Amino acid sequence: SLRAGGATSLAENGVPPSIIQAIGRWPSDAFKIYILKSPVLIQALLFGQTTHSASSYIHSLDS
Description:
One of its GO terms (molecular function) is DNA binding. One of its GO terms (biological process) is DNA integration. The protein is an all-alpha fold. The protein has one domain (about 1-60). Helix content is about 60%, strand content about 0%. The protein contains five helices and no strands. The protein is globular, with a radius of gyration of 11 Å.
């Protein structure tokens, strides 16, 4: 869906989760499910290819 793709794209570009939630008008934390499936973020975590510290970004989703 457009909202899921938008949330993922924003996350891949380092937009904070609270902003993603507001932009997508997500009433819950459901958008985090899509972000956690992002191949770009997963690859960055697995291979240490972080431009903006994907690891800390993923951990920020817990808050």
